[in-house]
Structure to design on (763 residues):
């Protein structure tokens, strides 16, 4: 009688476990005695050959643990990555222990559940700080050949020069030896190898790009093998062995806290606590029964307890939601480890049809999958969407026939994975700064549209005038704002079917099917009209355009592109200088507006320089040039922070270095204007010293341009005889004494003597 009662109490649990594991059990009976795993021999800490010549690493220990949990023998073969993939294709190995999931690879392999998520990063030496990948455009970056990081960096559209090497170690060696300043690697392998090699000066920048799921992979179509490996992985997670392996190899690099582990494994923890509670109750119950029943009954009970414990471990390791559904689409049972995942109470679903949970679109897809699963006995997979509080959630459901007219459907929340994939796909075709399409998208779209039905195919090139000047003068933040506003103007002027891409730092292109040349000019006029209403830091937006139209298939699209580009550059030659001149006027206005002392200083220096030049009987045009240089000599201070320029106390070493940069910044600003190239050279050197101890180049004596030597004396004299926030002003006599003392050191002795005897007495 006792046996019947006990079996009734547990029969539901055993039948459920039998249904879920039926496919894996069938496979296990037919599987080979030994599982053969393969992986990369140069991928620490995931897989590598240790000092004893044996396979080692996180992936290796994971493969061993899964094999032992399933009761299989195993063999692990490590080789070069491309050879390992060939071995899987040829059937020499059964499983690759670690491979990153991509849509392209999913067409060649079947992936297990994810056992790690890895991201890429940029490694540098200490002291280097990087804000974004875009800031590295044009840089030389060492990468591991064939790695997902190399693939990603190639796809960004930035002009990286990628130096491919076989291993992570060789990439870090190039960084240590100074051959490159950057290494693009997966973060955990990079940190592990740097630690093993003692490279203490190597650090990761924590950019965290291309987060990828890392899983085991089998040959496409080997569904039974994949299900078996998934079952083993769930078993070692349920028993805690997975966490031990993960913490040993990867935990130190992930640096996750106790809250993270609780949130990640809270249902496993609660399941284990519940299991212990059940075991305690069961043990008490069993002790009572042992006193009443025979030795044979006691042995049977022990066997049942062991079976129950194993079944509960399997259930705890299952995906989030398990449905049992009949052939009519009616829910028979619902099991899940996290009640909020269902969004409907269990009693609301049981006995109802699937259209209670799913929309008509997904209900019909699910019914087709149920029919196929019941008819063929094979696993069916579909994805569906649920709207909850106005937000979409995405699930993957796998269905397999269990018994009679029923299927077991296992559903897992894949919202985060889908959003991550969608975001990565968005980044691969969009410019991060402006939100427009990027060069990669433009190239692909140009190929797609280059067909006869789209002729005339119009290509309009646009180049922002003065971007470098604005970056140098007002900083890259203002330059970025300029690019964003240009993008907004283009979007406002264009229709939705007119494709706008940013293909370079300051270059945009508009691609329009079925647009003749006359219409292109109308579109450009519309862009220019809108741009006149927009400015950045009170500077008007200026964009030069060029266009060309492909009207027949015999024309080369490359020639059309070059024709549009040539026209754009010819326009830029005319429009660019005007824009730069206006920008320089705005820079001077900005400096004077925020610092009246600088305005007064520039006017005084201009007046004294003109008098100095006249006294030397220089030609009138040169006198005017010297006056102009004097007005512009501190234009580079536009890029210096106000708090440094206006600081009342002594400057720190860092602040002094920032101030000294103003002559170089001024040179870059002025040299961007063709008519001011010579003046730019004078501004660059007006803080050189006659004894060679000045900046920025340490020129000495006659090597310093004549007008720079003249300007240096007048600049210093006016600075000494006028109030500054950081010092009191000198008397004229004190200033004369200082100039005389510095004659032959800071100043040209002949010009200093002339200034003291001819200019100061007349001021």
């Amino acid at each position: 009688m006792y046996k019947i009662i006990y079996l009734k109490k547990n029969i539901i649990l055993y039948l459920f476990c039998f249904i879920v594991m039926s496919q894996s059990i069938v496979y296990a009976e037919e599987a080979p005695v030994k599982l053969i795993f393969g992986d990369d021999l140069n991928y620490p800490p995931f897989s590598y050959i240790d000092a004893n010549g044996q396979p080692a690493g996180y992936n290796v220990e994971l493969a061993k643990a899964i094999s032992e949990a399933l009761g299989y023998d195993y063999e692990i073969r490590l080789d070069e990555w491309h050879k390992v993939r060939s071995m899987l294709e040829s059937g020499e190995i059964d499983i690759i222990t670690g491979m990153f999931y991509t849509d392209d690879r999913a067409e060649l392999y079947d992936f297990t559940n994810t056992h790690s998520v890895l991201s890429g990063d940029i490694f540098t030496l200490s002291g280097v700080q990087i804000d974004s990948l875009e800031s590295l455009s044009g840089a030389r970056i060492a990468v591991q050949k064939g790695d997902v990081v190399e693939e990603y960096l190639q796809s960004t559209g930035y002009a990286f020069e990628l130096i491919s090497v076989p291993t992570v170690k060789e990439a870090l060696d190039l960084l240590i030896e100074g051959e490159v300043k950057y290494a693009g690697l997966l973060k955990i392998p990079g940190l592990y190898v740097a630690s093993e090699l003692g490279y203490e000066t190597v650090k990761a920048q924590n950019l965290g790009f291309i987060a990828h799921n890392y899983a085991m992979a089998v040959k496409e179509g080997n569904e039974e093998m994949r299900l078996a490996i998934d079952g083993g992985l769930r078993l070692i997670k349920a028993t805690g062995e997975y966490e031990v392996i993960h913490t040993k190899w990867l935990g130190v690099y992930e640096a996750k806290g106790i809250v993270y582990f609780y949130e990640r494994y809270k249902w496993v923890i609660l399941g284990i606590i519940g299991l212990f509670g059940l075991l305690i109750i069961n043990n008490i119950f069993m002790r009572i029964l042992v006193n009443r029943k025979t030795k044979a009954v006691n042995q049977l009970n022990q066997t049942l307890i062991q079976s129950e414990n194993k079944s509960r471990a399997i259930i705890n390791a299952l995906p989030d939601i398990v449905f049992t559904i009949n052939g009519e689409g009616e829910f028979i049972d619902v099991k899940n480890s996290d009640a909020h995942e269902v969004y409907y109470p269990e009693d609301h679903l049981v006995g109802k049809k699937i259209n209670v949970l799913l929309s008509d679109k997904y209900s019909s897809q699910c019914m087709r999958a149920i029919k196929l699963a019941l008819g063929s006995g094979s696993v069916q997979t579909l994805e569906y969407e649920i709207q909850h509080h106005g937000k979409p959630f995405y699930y993957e459901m796998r269905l397999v026939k269990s018994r009679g007219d029923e299927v077991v459907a296992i559903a897992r929340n894949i919202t985060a994975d889908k959003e991550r994939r969608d975001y990565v796909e968005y980044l691969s075709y969009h410019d991060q700064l402006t939100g427009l399409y990027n060069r990669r998208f433009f190239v692909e779209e140009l190929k797609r549209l280059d067909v006869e039905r789209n002729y005339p195919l119009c290509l309009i090139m646009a180049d922002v005038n003065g971007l470098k000047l604005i970056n140098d003068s007002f900083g890259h933040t203002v330059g970025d704002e300029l690019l964003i506003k240009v993008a907004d103007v283009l979007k406002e002027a264009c229709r939705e079917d007119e494709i706008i891409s940013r293909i370079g730092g300051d270059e945009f292109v508009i691609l329009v099917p079925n647009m003749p040349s006359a219409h292109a000019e109308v579109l450009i006029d519309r862009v220019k009209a809108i741009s006149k209403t927009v400015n950045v830091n009170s500077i008007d937006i200026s964009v030069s355009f060029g266009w060309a139209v492909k009207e027949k298939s015999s024309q080369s699209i490359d020639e059309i592109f070059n024709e549009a580009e040539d026209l754009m550059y010819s326009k830029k030659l005319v429009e660019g200088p005007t824009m730069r001149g206006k920008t320089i006027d705005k820079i001077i206005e900005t400096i004077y507006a925020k610092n009246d002392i600088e305005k007064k200083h520039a006017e005084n220096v201009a007046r004294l320089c003109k008098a100095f030049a006249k006294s030397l009987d220089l030609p009138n045009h040169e006198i005017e040039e010297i006056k102009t240089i004097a007005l512009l000599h501190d234009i580079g201070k536009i890029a210096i922070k106000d708090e440094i320029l206006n600081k009342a106390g002594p400057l720190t070493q860092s602040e002094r270095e920032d101030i000294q940069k103003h002559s170089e910044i001024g040179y870059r600003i002025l040299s961007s204007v063709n008519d001011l190239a010579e003046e730019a050279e004078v501004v660059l050197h007006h803080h050189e010293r006659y004894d060679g101890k000045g900046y920025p180049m340490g020129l000495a004596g006659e090597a310093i341009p004549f007008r720079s030597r003249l300007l240096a004396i007048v600049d210093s004299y006016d600075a000494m005889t006028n109030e500054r926030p950081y010092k009191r002003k000198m008397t004229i006599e004190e200033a004369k004494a200082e100039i005389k003392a510095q004659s032959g050191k800071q100043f040209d002795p002949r010009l200093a003597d002339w200034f003291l005897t001819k200019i100061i007495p007349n001021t």
Notes: The two ends are 123 Å apart (CA to CA). The first strand starts at residue 34 and ends at 40. The mean pLDDT is 83.
